[in-house]
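User: Can you predict the 3D structure for this chain?
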Amino acid sequence: MSVARPGGTGGVSARIVALLTLAAFINYIDRGNLATAGPLIRDEFGLSNTQLGLLLSAFFWSYVPGQLPAGWLAERLDARRLLAAGLAVWALATALTGLAGGFLTLLVVRVMLGAGESVMYPASFKILACEALEGQRGRANGLLAAGLSFGSAFGTLLGGLLMAWLGWRTVFVLFGGASLLWLWPWLRTAQPVAAPPEMTGEEGPSTLVILQRRELWGSCLGHFCEAYAFYLVLSWLPLYLVKVRGFSVAEMAPLGAGVYALFGVGSVVTGWLSDRSLASGMSVNRVRKTAFLIGFAGVAACMSACAFAGSLGSLLAMAGCGISLGIVMTALYATVQSLAGPAATGRWMGVQNFVGNLAGIIAPVVTGVVVDRTGTFSIGFLIAAGFALVGMIAYGLIVARIEPIDWRMAEPARWVPATPPPG
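Assistant: Here is the predicted structure, written as structure tokens:
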């Protein structure tokens, strides 16, 4: 297993954080473009809301199970090169989407996209867990979360406008080709990281030991609850604004982008405030749990408001939901790295992202079925609000404390002292 001592070289470099942020930006442009094109694709192929929901969820049919092998590979291979290989696959899948001839072809390329993107977070978290200091994690993970939200904003705004002008097929081909450009600076930067002297063996704590941790399962539940609201917004916001609120595709694009941009602002501000709070002497546990409490409460309140408010009120509630999701996401990312540490972050995130992203399969389909049967999004929004309250409980009570786990106490046979005893 290749890991580096956290902070051994003064912490993670700004170049690595910037490129990881850019990868997350690209990741969510390519992931979210189908939702942006949803109204156009549905009309062209004559799809029902349920069929569109299946297409939106198909990404997760490979993305979710792919988290487990991706986490395993991130612990054993160069995580930086693993990320590069995944990006190449998902960029190709994005371009091929523009050539799809119907529902079945779209289904296949969405599954391919999910397989490529499955390495993104196990690999990225492994890199940050190995190289970032605890006092850097707020900003680093805030930027990573901002990358995905600004990617969604950019894809919705520019993608929506370009689709209205050039058609959705051309946009997918262009964006897929542009994604490949990231590989050049990344491969020039990638360097294998060295093992810390206090660890021996190839695996660190065993997977069984990781699976026995209460903190893991509390984090998994909390991640699922956050992801349910996030994927409801990511999957259905464009169609909601066009079909329910009456905006054109061109009008929808800046509105949807604004929600994602506020998500990014919430992420960056939360990361900065978190690091400042840690520097002032607050504990990691208090900083992260405060963010979870505020963020999940905001998601629950705003999703509930979306269920009952009028046009203006629902737009304001969506904006508040974007900010709240950014707060939760930054705390969630940093918490994984704090709890698991460099010895276990790859596999921990593989398991957590597997469970959390089941919401990506469930939320689009459940919402589509609810809309088809009731003719309204209200019940879908209330379901997401309920999950947000459960997420608050998961991180507040099930995860007793957010602090580094001492894996030597959990599995001492796999660890040895940094220096041999005298004599």
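The two ends are 30 Å apart (CA to CA). The CA atoms of residues 231 and 360 lie 6 Å apart.
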